[in-house]
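seq as requested:
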Amino acid sequence: MSLDSLPPRPLTVPEGRALHRSDTFRMAAPASASSKRGRDTRLVSALVLVTGDTVYGVGYDVAQEGWQTVFRESYGTVGEADDLAAEANDDLREWVGHREESFGEVEEGIEATEEESERARLLFEQYDEIVESGQ
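struct tokens:
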């Protein structure tokens, strides 16, 4: 699979669904989607992609302004593909910086939310720039 087949920006949720329905992948599922206050659009910046023999975890890197492979493993059975897809999802969520934790102090929770909000702001900024330029 070539990352060149993905647009040079985060995907919208409908674009992610279209990948899932395409013949290219057996499965395409978001591992991370970001929203922005005042916008109906949600952006997918991490995807688990399953082809005929390989599970990929790909993420949109805001610093590099492009997609990169975070996870790649071949599989032999459907059960292996399911297990690897779950592993890819976990790896992507960690790569993106999602936190599955409770916070002892309100300030800790606010700081974590601010980090995720900054990532979302950058994703939407890059998405808007590319869409406005017609790419």
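Strands lie at 11-12, 27-34, 43-50, 54-61, 66-74.
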